[in-house]
Each structure stands twice: as C-alpha cells, then as structure tokens.
Model the fold of this input.
Amino acid sequence: MPTISPPFVALTFPAMPVAVASAHWRTGTWARSAGFVRIVPVLAGMLLSGPAAYATGENGTPSTYFASDPTPPVKLGGAGHFVILTESGITDVPMSAVTGNIGVSPITGAADHLSCAEVTGKIYSVDDAGPHPCSIRAPKKLTTAVNDMHTAYKDAAGRSATTTNLGGGNIGGLTLAPGVYSWDTDVDIPTDVTIKGGSHAVWIFQISKNLVVSNGKSVILRGHAQPQNIFWQVAGKVALGTTSNVKGIILSKTLIAMKTDASIEGRLFAQTAVTLQKNTVTAP
Done:
C-alpha cells in the first residue's frame, strides 16, 4: 500500500473491502470509489472516529468534519403529510397564508378556524364540520398522523444529548453545529441565532420548558442546513414573536402561538392548539 503523508489520512468503511488506497481530489469536490479507502485532510491533533460529513462552505470551498455518531433525523410518519397538525384546534386572525396540508384531531373540525382561502393544500377534519367547502373528512388518516406525531415527539425527547444547557437557555447570537441540544430551562432567542451545517446534518433541540423567539428575530440557516432536518421538541409552550422568522419542525406538547406577521418554514405539531395571527406557514 502506498504511503500517505500528513495532513491526509485514509479511512476505511465497514463491508467495503480495501483494494488499494486510491482517491482523487477534484476541484471543488471530494471523489471516491466503492471498494477503496477515502483520503481526506485532517487537522493536526484531530482524533478521527466514525464517518465523515461533508459540507461546502460559504466561499464554495469544500470543508470536512467528523462526527463520532451522526444524528439521524426524527421520523414523522403520517404526520409528515401535514404542515399544521393539532389535537385541540387552530385559531386564526386572518389573513394567514399556509402552504401545505392541515389537520385537527380528535377535536371536531369546527375547531379549525382557518378558511379555505388561507390554505394552499388540503384541510382534513374528523367530521363534516371543518371549513366549508374545502374540508375533507378523514378520521383514520388523522388518527394515524396524530399517533405518529406523538411517536416523533418521544423520539426527539429520547435522544442522547451532545450539548446540555448551552448559554443557560439564551442562544441568541450563537452559531449552532449539528447535534442534539438539551435544556432543563426555557430557551430564549432574543437575537438572531444561526444554524450551520451540511444538507444532511440534523439538529434536535430538547426543551423541557418554553421556547420564546423575540419580536423581529430569526433562525438563520447557513451552509446547506435544511429546515426539514431541524427539530424543536418543546415540553412547554412555544411563542414566536411578531415578525419573527423560524426554521424547523416544532413538536410541542402544549400550545404553539404565532404572533402577528411571524413566519415559519417548517411544521407546527401541537398536542394542544395552534394560534395564528396573519402568519405565513410554509412546509419545507
């Protein structure tokens, strides 16, 4: 086998027989072939363990980092067909703009106060009392979705944390790498927070109390971070301040309240109610 000198190291993979140490460094990309080792740059003193994750930096230069146990996403099951799913209803101060399917269950469809004109998608109810004339009666579909919502909540809450009580619950101004973050406090976002990573990276935020995003503040994505890979598991209430902008899937055990002109690219899953006030909600 040829000698490989620092700052490069060869990584092998399970169930991939190593024929020779071979890789090509192409402009702007890392290339590899099945059955070969991977050649990657490594910083001096870095301990390598586990698979490598790849992301392109903002200047277009490929960067490499290593994770000992990459976080898998939370599986949403049937809940993933919805952008808003709630067990005790949706209140609304019109006009809101919702892109994606919505559903309420087990409460009657009469508790869904969004109008047909505010939803680009389908509106599902357990009975015939949903918004007229667009509501679709689908109790079995909704029961499955709500059960899967609970399963997703438990999954997110049960992950092993990689970071605990960051910032004492104040994460404003921080840039967050992929991982599982846990707090036994409220989590406040009084200034913009940045989530940065690759397109397959996952963030899970376990919050034992409330999540509060201040008026006009944003969750900003950098690198190739994707909103569908960001999960906010909140045991308490969620309050998204006026004109705030949030990214990710909110799994709340209680209320999700969006204040006037707040927006989210993600999903709102509440085990109680969702309240809207001239909001924009867009499925990722």
